[in-house]
Amino acid sequence: MRRDRGEEKRFNIWFVWDYEKEQQHLDHLSQEGIHLTKPGLFRSGFTRDRSVRYVYRLDYQPGLRRKRLNHEYLELFKDSGWESVGSCNNWYYFRRPWQPETTHEIYTDVASLKGHYQRIQWLLGGVLCAELLDLLVNLNLFVVNPQRHHVATFTLPLFIFQAVITAFLACGFLVIRRKAIRVERV
Description:
alpha+beta, 4 helices, DUF2812, transmembrane, transmembrane helix
């Protein structure tokens, strides 16, 4: 952790399917007086202020690149009492002052929450399909040319690593899918 003109930078890594854990982490930091100012992929900016406590929520919204759509989206949240903290890779970070015994959810109906999970599924499904295709191409190269030992020596560890990443993505996809199914049953 580094202090820089009142701002701290903290390393973070979260998986798409575990975004709720990031929300809980941000809520916990806020309870300690540490508040998000700039979300980032691996490093985020924070400031300290014990006089306020926030609750944080994240929303995945691809396709809001057009200025008008983005403005309307942010205004909708502002009208609902949420302050935009920023965005990173189509994830939008919102906060509002914490209040005891208040529901702090941005999705208050089943259809919206289901849509949220579906957007995440599309993201993970697309990355997973691309990774599977690449894995199959590499498997084909490995099987077709096993006599090239110098290539096989390099390719096998890479192939194993890629297979592990693919399995990891598949697990994440299934986690989000289960969450979507649970919402559909409500």
